[in-house]
Each structure stands twice: as C-alpha cells, then as structure tokens.
UniProtKB/TrEMBL annotation:
Pfam families, sorted: HTH_31, MLTR_LBD
PANTHER family: BLL4672 PROTEIN, BLL4672 PROTEIN-RELATED
Residue intervals of the HTH cro/C1-type domain: 29-83
Full protein name: Helix-turn-helix transcriptional regulator
Organism name: Streptomyces polychromogenes
SMART domains named in the record: HTH_XRE (SM00530)
Signal peptide: none
C-alpha cells in the first residue's frame, strides 16, 4: 500500500460524499457530473488553488503542510478520527503521539488485565495482536486457548477462526470497527511490514474484509454494546470499553461488562465451568 495514493483516494472519497446544498454553496446552472463537491469548491473552502487540490487527488507526491491539511480537514468536514488519519497519511504526527511501538505488554499491564477478573479483559496492540488476557476472556472467546500463539489476533479470530464465525450477532459492525482501527493504525505506522502483510492476508482471504476496507472508514468506536453468541452459554449482551494506557498509547485495554442480569448469570456459569 502507498500512503501517497491512499491520501489521494481518501481526499476524493471525502469530497464526493459532501452535499453542496447542505454546505450552503450556490446552485450552479450546469448539472453536476460527479457526486459531492467539485475540486474548485474544495479549493475555495480550504483557501488553496484548484490545481493544488487536483494534484493532491492525482497522487503527484505533494507533501502538504500541517496548515494546509487542517484547512482541507475543515473544508471536507472531517470527523476527528478522519482528521488524524489525514495527518498520518501526509506524515505529520498528531500532537501527543511519538510514533514508537511498544515491544509487548509491560508486566504491570499484564497484571492489571488479570486483576480485572471477573470482568473479561484483554490487552491488544495496534495490530490487534492479543498480548494479555484473563481467564474470563479466554473462556468467552470460543476455542481461544487452542489457537496457536502466532494467530492470537482479534481480527484474525473474527475473520478466519471457524469457531468464531457466528460469535458476533452483528458481525458486519464488528468488522467495521476492527477495520477502521487497522486502517488508522496503518496510516500511523506505514513502515510496519507485519501490519501491512496482515491486512493483505485479510483482504485476500475474506471478501467482507476487502469490501469494507475499500470504504475507507476510520472512525473507531471506543465504547458500545455487543451481542455475543457463545456456543455453550448462548446469547450474552456486553457493554465494552476501550482504554488507552497513558504510558503506552499504542496499546488498547478492552474490557467487557455484562449488560443485564441474564448476561451476568451466563458469564458466571461459563467461567465457573
């Protein structure tokens, strides 16, 4: 994957989704041949030349400044996650990020995951590799303990582990959330060959992944609710929270909590087996 070409494609996709009427732009007499804004309209809103926008969208290798990126983000009405993605693609680190990758789970974080019992919890890196987990999470994920260490990756489990094919009631949304995170992680770490190879593997082996990856969504949900279909315990509804350790912001601590009494009882029975 090429960050220059992805930057071009991302700008085009975000320009084409905008409604000129909602932005209060004057109506043109001639019909629009393409959806969304014209390049000259984006250029006017961002305060840059039309030729500059054209060259950016053609992937000509321009390196826009942080000021130009901020202006484009405003013109294209980018959400915070999309703005971060744009900056990462252009090689401008976001404020508060270092770009360093932790080698693994710090012992204190691994102990924290264990101490969160009886709440199912696990620690993931930017690739969604599972670095640490507690017994409750191991029981909750079907067949997890039999998975080879090299395949203990949350996205691989969701996509390619047969025992988890029907685990998420809304598999489409689970994939969207995971793909949005992986896309943002790739933009932040384009030199991470292991991550690039992982994405390529998913795209070639799963049609749903390839389809959703092409949509270029980068908005990540750090909180929400999931309905899980466990082969032994049945339906379990959980609320999830994703926390970022201040010392290791590239890591993600995922914690599940039962959303109702029935789900809490099901989790208790599952973990007591």
């Amino acid at each position: 994957m090429d960050t220059t070409q992805e930057l071009a494609a991302f700008l085009r996709s975000r320009r084409e989704r905008l409604d000129p009427e909602r932005l209060g732009l004057p109506a043109h007499r001639r019909a629009r041949r393409t959806p969304g804004l014209r390049r000259e309209e984006v250029a006017e809103l961002a305060g840059v030349s039309t030729d500059y926008v054209v060259r950016l969208e053609q992937g000509c290798g321009l390196r826009p400044s942080a000021e130009v990126l901020a202006a484009l983000a405003r013109a294209l009405r980018l959400a915070p996650g999309e703005r971060d993605y744009l900056f990462d693609l252009a090689g401008h680190r976001r404020p508060g990020t270092t770009g360093g990758l932790p080698a693994g789970a710090a012992p204190s974080l691994a102990r924290l995951v264990d101490d969160l019992s009886p709440l199912p919890a696990m620690l993931l890196n930017h690739r969604y590799d599972i670095l640490a987990w507690n017994p409750e999470m191991a029981r909750l994920l079907p067949g997890f303990e039999a998975v080879p260490p090299a395949r203990r990756n949350a996205m691989w489990l969701c996509l390619l582990h047969p025992e988890m094919r029907g685990f998420y009631a809304d598999r489409e949304q689970a994939l969207r959330d995971g793909i949005a995170h992986l896309r943002a992680a790739w933009a932040a770490h384009p030199q991470d060959r292991e991550l690039t190879e992982l994405i390529a593997e998913f795209a070639t082996q799963d049609e749903d992944f390839a389809r959703l990856w092409a949509e270029r969504e980068v908005s990540v949900n750090g909180r929400g609710r999931k309905v899980l279909r466990h082969p032994v315990a049945g339906a379990i509804i959980v609320d999830f929270e994703v926390l970022l350790p201040l010392q290791d912001p590239e890591l993600r601590l995922l914690v599940y909590r039962a959303a109702d009494e029935e789900s809490r009882a099901s989790l208790h029975r599952l973990c007591a087996r």
